[in-house]
Amino acid sequence: MTDSWANFGADLHLDLSAGRGRRAGLVEALREAARSGRLAPGTRLPSSRSLAVDLGMARNTVADAYAELVAEGWLTARQGSGTRVAERARPRPGKAAGAAPVRRPERRGPSYSLVPGTPDLSGFPRAAWLAAARRALTHAPNDAFGYGRDARGRVELREALAEYLARVRGVYADPERIVLCAGFVQGLKLMSGVLRARRVREVAVEGYGLNVHRDVLAAAGLRMRPLPVDGAGARTQDLAGAEPAGAVLLTPAHQFPTGAALTPARRAAAVDWARRTGGLILEDDYDGEFRYDRQQIGALQGLDPDRVVYLGTASKALAPGLRMGWLVLPPGLVEEVLTVKGRAEWTSSALDQLTLAEFIRSGAYDRHVQGMRQRYFRRREALVAAVGARVTAVSGISAGLHAVLDLPAGTEGPLVQAAAWHSLSLTGLSYYRHPEADMPPRDALVVGYGTPPDSAWGATLAALAATLP
Question: Is 2 a residue whose pLDDT tops 50?
């Protein structure tokens, strides 16, 4: 008999070799399934009658096979309990002669982390999200369960985002000009493809920024020209001498990682450059909703929606695991982005999009952001109170999920190493510096106070205080 399947409540493949008798073949197939773990200990086997029907065998053949395996200890048979796979002790691996004693694996990684870039994941609004998901699923149209033919994403979320971004961030957002994506990095990849198709060869970037963003631009074959960054943000006035650049990537509301806000004069300089040269401004508004000392600054896109590509994400306000981001595009750029992305939406779950749309429309998104804003503000205040007197300065505006602790010259590297001794993961400002940036050296720590969960915040802050001199 060739390979066959038996229905054990779930299908199980049994290798019944043709070269053996039916009974012997069944015994060996069941023995191998139990030995390999495909039949887990305690699994109840079908009755001899039903298995015989499944395999096309005589009932006595199956009963004899069961009896042999019971005698060998592979199966157990009890009245009223049926035939089950026997519980067997797992053999311990033997120690070869001369082998080194087995050691427990050492604990890897720090106990505490203040690396920026992640919100407090324990604050994710599980109950409110679940309620929104239930409502979204209840009212979801049938086509939401299809392949997603519109590469811009679900219209329900695009409409909700257009209203929210206009109200909260001052963005001019037509739902038809919003394209959903799987986070900022994918949005930047799409724009890099558009720039490459436009034969752009150079993009201006901030002198401090994320390596992953620079890697995306480099992978598209785009050269980068770093703009110096100071307390007023990126020196956008230097764009006037960067005529070959076809675009500039900025974090205007809260420069990452220095924490500066782009001043009105420098905002105007960037827009003037874009209008005069036909270049594009790529605005990364990664944490623009979190401002603590004053009303949040509106998005740069509001100054010129025709020259600014607004890139937003739910990664900081909710969680990066949602893989949810969006581009608000100038009118003539939508088709170019869709050409790069493709004509179908393959990257973001339609049900997650509908849930986020419901989450926004119900007001749950606003309530969650307001609650997290208060939590992060308290943490920033606690951070400044605990270590402010032990560093040169706490620089950057009171906003976002991280702060910059300025240090005496030459102390950044030793302090990052000292933090490791206290089982604390820290990042120095130099880690984010573009290697070709024309800026004076600066020693500082970039402290992600949004990263630890509430349960670990006190101990993490204490580890930081123990690290500083």
Answer: no
